[in-house]
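Z., the sequence and structure:
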Amino acid sequence: MLSDLLLNPLLTLIQADGRIKGYYLVSSAVALLCFGASWIAFALGAPAYASYVFFAIAYALVDVVKVIWARKLTGYTLQALWADALRPLIVTSVLAAAVPVLLHFVLPAGLWRLLAVLAAEVLLLPAACWAAALTPGEREFVFRKAGRYLPDPLFLRLRYKMLTGRRLHLWRPRSFNEKIQWLKLHDRRPEYSSLADKAAAKSIVDGRLGKQVSIPTLGCWERASDIDFDSLPQQFVLKCTHDSGSVIVCRDKSALDRDAAVRSLDAALKKNFYYAAREWAYKDIKPAVIAEPLLSDGHAEGLTDYKFFCFNGEPRLLYISRGLEDHSTARISFVGLDWTPAPFRRSDYTPFETLPEKPAGLDKMMRYSRILAEGTYFVRVDFYEAGGEVYFSEMTFYPTGGYLPFGSDEEDLTLGGWIKLPTDK
């Protein structure tokens, strides 16, 4: 306790100044005074549990000082302080201390009691913080950092429960999202890694279709710092080959912040995308950055995406998206292969008020999807149409990591029924 009361504030004071320094001086002085009182009481013959009492008093007073200073510095209302800070703090403290204190009074004095109390504290404090003190976003951050050391089945069960609030059924998956989790574990064909690789997939797809439908590659670099911007046209797209979402869209090279683009791509290259949601196909892809020409279909909001959902080798519906660079204006709608609205929606995006015009190459996209999806349980095949030509975009085996936010549970179950797995027998 003494080391905590001294070293932690001292380390902070070395770097802090102004109001932060004043706050630590006051709170540390209060804690040290209480620690001294605890020591004097014990020296005068007070019982052993007196140290616990003074320990509690010390930190209670320090917390009161923290609340006063926090309110002064942030302008928090008392209600907000109670809901966001005090209540989680009190609940966490009670949960973490209850068992160790009980063990102290129940077990006989000695080494075993000390070990039992320490073990209980070490186990209960993180659990209490997780349950009572962390926000959903903080839990997600902790899980993302620590979860990489968990085996895939346990990781998927815990993350599914955390994100959906429901138990993941892997023995007999029923919903679309549950079956995507099952496929992560049980459908691991080596070719999936090549098809998920945004660079390697191009030659494979063009070979299967017998013609070039992939967007031309203008360059490929293993390090973002090696990108030859001078060789690129005025408009282009940079994307990582080993993940999803690491995209830089450049509409005017003279206005591009090259340093920011390099930093963003470098950060993405250092991450193994597999660990985020255990999307197995990405695990062994060699990270790289590719450049492609920026396609346009004439819409100011951006290029329209045609994403075909293929079930056991057959495309059965698609969703169309536009303007995904800006979530506030982006639109996504599900449609059937006959280009009529389908009874599904994504709750995280606004649907089109009026469906876009059916692309001239829709039949060609369906034919390509069927060829590329042959032999799979599920895959989403994406295309663009620009300048009267159909272009292959990518193949996705685990849309949104298997956490696709449908408009209702019934929609999730309906599409899950379209994927026929060995577990359905």
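The longest strand covers residues 314-322. The beta strands are 219-221, 236-240, 247-250, 289-293, 304-311, 314-322, 331-336, 378-386, 389-396.

Let me know what you think.
H.
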